[in-house]
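Support request, please re-run this one:
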Amino acid sequence: MLNMTKIREGIERVEIRVKMLSESEKQRLEETLELTTREFVAFQEIKSIAQAKGEIDLETAFFIYNTLGNWQKTDIATKAILTQVFAMLLLSKS
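Re-run finished. Output below.
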């Protein structure tokens, strides 16, 4: 089960890497991590299904929900980890 401990650990690892990037690399990464409306809706739906199936705990589901709602203000490390979570949930769905 995916939980906040695993997400926090991932965010901390990525934060270290992000600090080593140039401003232009950070900007490119930020652009890459933007979500379309379709991706946003799909992520919310998949997150809800995963939580209902017990694949993620309630705390993690709330974190994802809140972060998606504030995506524009979210740091690069958190966006990167949640994008990986989205991919993982998509793969587990199939």
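The two ends are 17 Å apart (CA to CA). The mean pLDDT is 95.
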